[in-house]
Amino acid sequence: MRTRLEPFVVEHFDMLAGHVAPIMDLNLLAYANLSTWLTMGTGFSLFVGEDIIGSAGIVPASRGIGEAWGIFNPAQAKAHAKQVVVTARAGMKALVKQMALHRIETVCPATDDTAKAWLVVLGFKPESLMRWYGPDKSDYYKFVYLVGE
Q1: C-beta of residue 47 within 8 angstroms of C-beta of residue 7
Q2: What does DSSP say about strands 65-72 and 103-109: parallel, antiparallel, or unpaired?
Q3: DSSP structural state of residue 43
Q4: What are the pLDDT digits (tens) for 84-142?
Q5: CB-side neighbour CA atoms (13 Å) of 41
């Protein structure tokens, strides 16, 4: 089936709402602030036919530094894993250039092995354990991608 990329719009999040697997940062945000936060940066969504697989992007944090985020339909992402990885890597490379980034950061729950594995596949490395970072005082890992390393 044919895949396509589209620029991220908030409606894509709504399309994923019943199937969302927060991978990076989104589980820390209140839905009321979500649309503002997501549209501050640049993002893209991957579709197979008319089905959305997921969305990802980068929000500028400071000069040369971006915060990565991603939301995915777990069943669709697993079924199209190779395309998701290829697309995410290409999208990240394009955003690094477009935004003139030298560092990308993100966080994920310390207990979420799927998120950690996904980040490693994309080239992120764990930087630190952030104790009591979650709203429920759960631990999170900070992952970083250093451009050119």
Answers
A1: no
A2: parallel
A3: E
A4: 888 888 888 988 999 999 999 999 889 988 888 889 999 999 999 999 988 889 999 99
A5: 27
Q: Which amino acid is at 28?
A: L
**Spatial contact of 53 and 7, defined as CB atoms under 8 Å apart:** no
**Cα–Cα–Cα angle for 8, 14, 17, nearest 5°?**
120
- Is residue 71 within 8 Å of residue 55, measured between CB atoms? yes
Residues in the chain: 149
- Whole-model pTM? 0.81
The correct CATH number of 3-146 out of 3.40.50.2000, 3.30.70.580, 3.40.630.30, 3.40.640.10 is: 3.40.630.30
Neighbours of 93 (CB within 10 A): 12
Domain spans of the chain?
3-146
